[in-house]
Amino acid sequence: MEIPVLELEGITKIFSRGYFKKKYIIALENINLRINKQDRLAIIGESGMGKTTLARIACLLETPTQGKIKWFGKDISNVSRRELSYLRTRVQYVHQDPYASLHPSRTIYATLADPLSRNNNIRGKELERRVEELLNLVGLTPPSYFLNKYPHHLSGGGRQRLAIARALTANPEVLVADEPISMIDMSLRATIIQILKILNKELGISIILILHDIGAARFFATNGGKIAVLYGGRIVEKGECDEIVNNPLHPYTRTLISASPIPDPDLAQEKKVIELKSYEPPKRELGKKLCPFSHTCLYSQDICFNKDPGLENVNDKHEVACFFWNRLPKWIPPWSKE
């Protein structure tokens, strides 16, 4: 079996607030993920489901309350500060907000040249060549036009391209992009995702893409990629892209897909909306085992409120955390004419 580049094993993250009377917020619970070399993984879910916390833990920017993080099979929970600093260069993070993540008073050349020089020990003409190479990779062409410009000269899409290029200066093994398309124009979103797919194919970088849009996740992960669906801090379904999109087995995944817009106006008018028992966010309590979707799901029964279903293998390409996945009604995609 291939040793994964990055593995998250039993990851739980609990935040506390208050001084005298503490309250606890369960952001993540028992997350297990394996990221192999050149993997493409889209993690989808609504806001507040733990996606950013998971991304920060994967990038070693946040420490889990429980669980292990493994790098090429080695547990890195107790490594030295020096080794942790090195490992953080191997897993790079692309922020959601391209307007806040770039230094406004540094030129595009300086934004890329400084980390390139520090991480690769290069100077002079070789440094200039590598900067231009990165700009070409992310589509900021011709490079000579952009070198002396500042971030405010770029559009939102241009800034996000620059943020991706900056992440590449460390030659990472894994790139984690936290909703990189949420703050840019709709017409440019596919371009940013396409850049990530090219980097995955040409440079062999494993890419984790955090999204709330199932359509964008499908575009990113189709043809060999994977999707993990996050709800209430838990992975409720994961597997190969085509399996998840064409045969979703968790009620929450079906709800996400049915809520996505359809470009065909005739089909959009006939689309059936999946009704829910409640639209309240999941309530997570320490030590209480239950399905996080039980209070909302139309198919929930007593067992769902008293036991955690856990992920079950449907086949070698598909896992789902639902007691009744094999009793759900036949799935008809919203874009189908049936």
TrEMBL record:
Protein name: ATP-binding cassette domain-containing protein
Coiled-coil residues: none
GO biological process, one term: peptide transport
Family, similarity comment: Belongs to the ABC transporter superfamily.
Classification of source organism: Bacteria, Pseudomonadati, Dictyoglomota, Dictyoglomia, Dictyoglomales
Recorded superkingdom: Bacteria
The organism of origin for this protein: Dictyoglomus thermophilum
UniProt GO molecular function: ATP binding; ATP hydrolysis activity
Gene3D superfamilies named among the record's database cross-references: P-loop containing nucleotide triphosphate hydrolases
Alphabetized UniProt keyword annotations: ATP-binding, Nucleotide-binding, Transport
